[in-house]
Amino acid sequence: MNEIPLSTYGLASSTPAPVNRMMASFAADFRDGVDINLGVGYVNEETIPADHFRVAFNEVLDKSETYRKALNYGGPAGSNVLIESIRCFLTSNSVGGLDERVLGGNEIIIGANGASSLLESMAYVLPKGIIVTADPMYYIYTNFLQRTGFELLTVPEDAEGIQTEILADKIAALGPRADEIRMFYIVTVNNPSCVILSNARRRELVRLAGELSVRLGRKIPVIFDRAYEDLIHDPAVEPVESALRYDEAEFVYEIGTLSKVLAPALRIGYLIGPGGPFLRALVQRTSDGGFSAPQITQSLASWLLDHQIVSQLKNVRDGYRQKATVVRKWIDDRLGGLLENVTGGQAGFYYYITFKDIETHEGSDFFKFLTRTTGNDDIDGPPEARNPRVIYIPGEHCVNSSGELAQTGRRQLRLSYGYENLAEIDRAVELMQQAADYAEEHRR
Ligand SMILES: Cc1ncc(COP(=O)(O)O)c(C=O)c1O
Questions:
Q1: Residue with the nearest Cα to atom 12 of ligand 1?
Q2: Which residue, of 54, 208, 371, 432, has the greatest Cβ tally within 10 A?
Q3: Where are the alpha helices (DSSP H) in 93-163?
Q4: CATH ID of 50-307, from 3.40.640.10, 3.40.50.300, 1.10.700.10, 3.30.365.10
């Protein structure tokens, strides 16, 4: 009998996305204390304030007049108490320079399941067409967009983020196809590269989208994904400015998440932006996809934001700052001579590394050495007790395979210093040095 017929998206999704496949095979026989995972975007367990969660849980259940119906269904736009806490968090800490005046002109909605669900909803409510984004790109979302039938227009980034001059040229080169552009999706601390989008580039993006909107006679939404923006830990970085502050034409939206600064398990992501049909459609989509985020986690998040976020942010930033500094030294000391470029270290918890010659893709000697799949037992160890394995995200999965970086991506990798502790990362960088030596020997 024939298989169940699938939609285009269903068919494309019936084969796991490359990173999912890689992670699943690594996780299947992961050995705690032996193998090292520098691939996952998991936060460091030590940054999650478990004790405060316990207090929050009791408070929320005790104060049922404030945290209403915490164990029941919720409304699709999000719970009022959480929305108020987010508003207060943003204004009292002047996040992105936001104040009550700017926020007063915008709405805040909560996704059903983190920022990811809001991003997913956009693919439902926008017509198919072209999405503008930076290269390297947030591979999880862009891979999904492609499976749903969107086309990507990627623009390489430099030290300030997406290169807007090149973007302008690319839009011009599209000619009449510019009419197919549906949104700009810009990650302000990029994943994988952790490059921080400069304020000048933010303004330029809004200007370009404004110009295009006028030309096309319709709004082109500019979505700034600020997932890692609360994790800018280098004090030397100029304070970032939210583009909502100068969004006169009302097409700028910001997506944030509490995953990276409180706990991914909360699954709280929010969107700030002007009300209108786009926002209303996203709310309806939340309802269709799961009614709302769980009321209980919205209530917990509200309590944590109201009572604990300032010290929490300090702890989290200090922790990643310390790790970033030490890990960078290990990278420089052990791999330095082999590298063409390293980005990251000022925000978030990734370094994005470009080797001069050594390839990092799944078929490369470097990858095989670290995953112990060279076929040589001297390197891999005996089958019943493989030597320690290290996993990272190969650059080939982070770049647009039909863009300018397709070849460079084969020499790049994302190393996460988020999840593992320093002792493990130390060992992993040492193993990377050995893998690099092995790859060099094979090249000769
Ligand atoms: C750029 C970016 N956006 C969004 C998300 C998803 O966040 P959430 O956990 O809120 O779904 C992530 C998670 O890693 C991310 O890296």
A1: 227
A2: 432
A3: 100-104, 114-125, 139-147
A4: 3.40.640.10
Sequence-ordered strand ranges (E) for 299-374: 339-344, 350-355
pLDDT for the residue 27: 85
For residues 389 and 374, the answer to whether their CB atoms sit within 8 Å is no
Residue 322 near residue 98 (C-beta atoms within 8 A)? no
For residue 444, the model assigns a pLDDT of: 72
Residue 258 alpha carbon, nearest atom of ligand 1 = 10
4 alpha carbon – ligand 1 mean position (Å)? 32
Exposure on the CB side of residue 83, measured as CA atoms within 13 A:
19
Cβ < 6 A, ligand 1 pocket: 41, 114-116, 138, 187, 191, 225, 227, 257, 259, 264, 269
Nearest C-alpha neighbor of 231 from the set 135, 115, 353, 318: 318
> Quick one: residue 382, left, alpha or beta (phi over 0 = left, psi -120 to 50 = alpha)?
beta
CATH class of 8-47+312-443: alpha beta
**Domain boundaries of the chain, sorted by first residue:** 8-47+312-443, 50-307
Residue 414 is predicted with a pLDDT of 98
Q: What is the four-CA torsion angle of 253, 274, 210, 94, rounded to 10 degrees?
A: -60
Judged against a pLDDT cut of 90, whether residue 329 lies above it is answered with: yes
pLDDT band at 443 (very low <50, low <70, confident <90, very high): confident
Q: Is 41 left (phi over 0), alpha (psi -120 to 50) or beta?
A: alpha
Reduced to 3 states (helix: H, G, I; strand: E, B; else coil), residue 183 is strand
Secondary structure of 184-203 in the HEC alphabet? EEEECECCCCCCECCHHHHH
In angstroms, what is the span from residue 442 Cα to ligand 1's centroid? 38
